[in-house]
Amino acid sequence: MTQHTDLPSDPFPTPVREFFAAHIVRDADAASSFLAEDALIVDQDETFRGREETYAFLRDAGSEYEYTTEQIGAHRVDDTHWVVTVRIEGTFPGGVAELDYRFALRDDLIAELVVANHPA
Question: Which long-range contacts (CB under 8 A, 24 or more apart) does 53-60 make?
């Protein structure tokens, strides 16, 4: 089962907060509504471009596993870049991971999202 972790309303801009909340509960329709038409998602070195590929990623990512998600950190890099750090525990190989979701915004939409291991 996926556990929804509420994000604080501050300091995140709406697209980051709402996308992340929808992604955590695996609502690909809602999450994709915050992506720019030409959005780019990179997850563990795999790249997804444009509406169709990014939607498929959001729909399918991690669907074969059960896991819980806990926000363990977040920060603003600048006016258009934000990082949310999460700890995921579940039935995937290794069982535990800490990931950074790095967001780049453009025109109040997510233009780029890079998901990568959080540095130790």
Answer: 55/28, 58/23, 58/28, 58/31, 58/32, 59/28
Assign 31 to helix, strand or coil. helix
Q: How far apart are the first and last CA of the chain?
A: 27
Peptide bond just before 119 cis, omega within 30 deg: no
23-73 pLDDT tens trace: 888 899 999 999 999 999 999 889 999 999 999 999 898 889 999 988 899
Judge contact between 34 and 51, C-beta under 8 A.
Answer: no
> What pTM value is reported for the model?
0.87
Alpha helical stretches, state H, the chain? 14-24, 28-32, 50-60
Nearest to 27 by CA among 65, 55, 50: 55
